[in-house]
Amino acid sequence: MILPVVAYGSPVLRKVCDDITPQYPELTKLIADMWDTVYNSNGVGLAAPQINKPIRLFVIDTVQIVEDFNDEDRRKYPDEKAIKQVFINAKKIEETGSMWPYNEGCLSIPKVREDIQRLSHVRLTYLDENFVPHEQEFYGITARVIQHEYDHIEGKLFIDYLSQLKKRLIKKKLDDISAGKVKTDYRMLFPK
Fold first, then answer.
1. Rg of the chain's alpha carbons, rounded to an integer?
2. Distance between alpha carbon 185 and the CA centroid of its chain, in Å?
3. Distance between CA 146 and CA 47 in Å, rounded?
């Protein structure tokens, strides 16, 4: 089932989310609904707070991004490994590598895209959908998507990385999103 995406300004997007257990109600259905929602909205990742659930759960699928690499991207990211994965109760261990910019957007902040600087590698622990523990390092585009979704479960948004000047320049767009004055190709849930 396709769920509405929570819009910028909703308090759940600023909450540090809670861990869950295998007994979380209808978890398998929730994960399936998250996949349906991310694909319906042409996203590459979705965190539970974006569907109004303040829990440490996110899904990412970087397969389409990597398959669509042009020759320059392939040279830049020769070892990029695409993944389709569920992350439960993720905890960041470290971020390393060099800072690099990439134009990011967010389903909760439609029609706003900005170049964001992030470190190129991230190591984290997490549970998969079967609650099997993992510790793994990710890099490149996949690391960036993980960092973006991980920020969501920590109550942080990509626009938090912008300078004060950039924030002032997009303030009207953000206000319009919070007020429900934005059109998207997917369902949204706006703050009251």
1. 16
2. 18
3. 10
- Residues marked active site are found at 149
User: pLDDT, tens digit, for every residue of 175-192?
Assistant: 999 999 999 999 999 997
End-to-end, the C-alpha distance of the chain in Å comes to 23
Q: Which domain holds residue 162?
A: 5-189
pLDDT digits (tens, 9 = 90+) for 148-174: 999 999 999 999 999 999 999 999 999
How many structural domains are present in the chain?
1
Residue closest to 90 by CA, chosen among 140, 42, 143, 39: 143
Report d(CA 7, CA 27) in Å as an integer. 23
pTM (predicted TM-score): 0.94
The single residue listed with the structure tokens 């990742």 is: 45
Confidence at 68, pLDDT banded by 50, 70, 90: confident
Q: Which residues contact 66 (CB under 8 A, 6 or more apart)?
A: 77, 80, 81, 82, 141
CATH code for position 101: 3.90.45.10
